[in-house]
Design a protein that fits this description.
Layout (H helix, E strand, L loop, with lengths): L3 E9 L2 H12 L12 E4 L3 E6 L2 E8 L3 E7 L4 E8 L1 E9 L13 E13 L3 E11 L9 E8 L13 E9 L2 E13 L6 E11 L5 E5 H10 L6 E2 L1 E9 L5 E14 L24 E4 L1 E4 L5 E2 L5 E3 L2 E3 L5 E9 L2 E11 L8 E7 L2 E8 L8 E6 L6 E9 L5 E13 L10 H4 L7 E6 L5 E7 L5 H9 L3 E7 L2 E7 L2
Length: 487
Amino acid sequence: MKECRSLGTVAVLSLGLFSSQALAQTEAFCSTTTHSGESKTETGSYSPGSIGQYDYQLWYDHANSASATFYSDGSMSCTFSGAGDYLCRSGLQFNSDKTYDQMGGDIIAEYKLVKKNISGVDYSYVGVYGWMEGVQGAPNGLVEYYVVDNTLSQWMPGDWVGNEKIAANVSIDGGTYTVYRNTRTGPAIGGSGDKEFYQYFSIRSSMRDCGTINVSAHLKKWKELGLADGRLYEAKVLGEAGSTGGGVSGEADFPHAKVYIGGGSTTPTSSGSSNPGSSTSTRTSTGALPGTMEFEKYESKQSDSLKVYGDVIGNIQPGDWVEWTVDVSYTGTYTFDILAAREDSQNRESEISLSIDGMPVGSVSVITDGWDSYDTFKGVTSSISSGQHTFRVTFTDGYVNVDNIKFTEKEVDKSSKYEPPPEAMAKTRFALKDKDLQVFDMLGRHLGRVSVAAGTTLQDALSAKFHKPGIYLVKQGALFVQVRVNR
């Protein structure tokens, strides 16, 4: 049996309030209206390139006019008039040397779409696009793949997208999709001339203009359905529209578009940078002293410059910071170890400072032989009182990569032990058989429902249903609670 315990404070919320507050924290980009950062405008019918930490591509088949503006924050604005087929995409380019489950974490895509004056569209795909190489059983070992969450027309793609309907009404990443495979001959990666290859599609049952797509979840589901995977060549947010006659016109504006690796230990390579971009969404995480906190699981951060690369954070500028809400078990001092890396041709150190509720409690200085040469740097805090606090790590001098911070007891008062308040709902053993509860992940995505049999704990039901450790948001009526499930 898995060990489980609950976290957080039970809150009485309506579903509407949960959507506007909890989702606003995790998918705040849905309210984004403007682009940011440097920009490049392309007009050529085939225009690949990179900006900031993202790779992009504009392509169209004849048009009265067509262009795309790409931004260093990953967003893009795509404009077309009288085009036979038009597409723009932005995201990550890989080395085709790893499959999805070797990337060190889930491949995550975020997007917000604003449609403007769209007309003449016969077919369209909005979502995630990419290629895989070395796919066993696929013609030439190639697969072109799509996760379609929206379109630039009035309808979602139908059975015409694939000559094989693999499965209908499949639950993937909190949504319902139909999965197709198609065999096609046409332009492909890996050389000039047309080639035969497979296409994989996940077509969402209903459109959404904004959301988060776990690309790895689709790749995993495809594999479970018998569609072989391969080495990833790319994963990009896509906007595409075409017409069998006449032409398509309008604007597909993506004021938010990002692709990143959402945890783990492997950093893919993007041609635009040595590291890919990451989410700027606020993350939910609770730390504890003593204990270890992973930097990529921060609760909030100071700016969008700081990025997550696998299981570390980097691109840290002077003055950037990250925060957690922490439970300090005992009043006293703690030894802390920070796993970090820094390269500097002049051998200059970078200071990292710690504070509790705004008061300085410790610092260390960091320097190593390179950006991938991680070492442990030790320090000792001043006295910290037991209880729940806001813990901040400030990168005073910036330009450092950090993995985690570990706290161990040095001199503490065991009589001052802090006990977090109990969470009544999570500890309840439901007396009613088949009690129906809604379950969300910490990004606010609906995962499904669980039924809790009489005498069974909520934690046991979550473990049996989802088979995955982590923190879940569970809703019963107007009541929400965070529940942790551990292996």
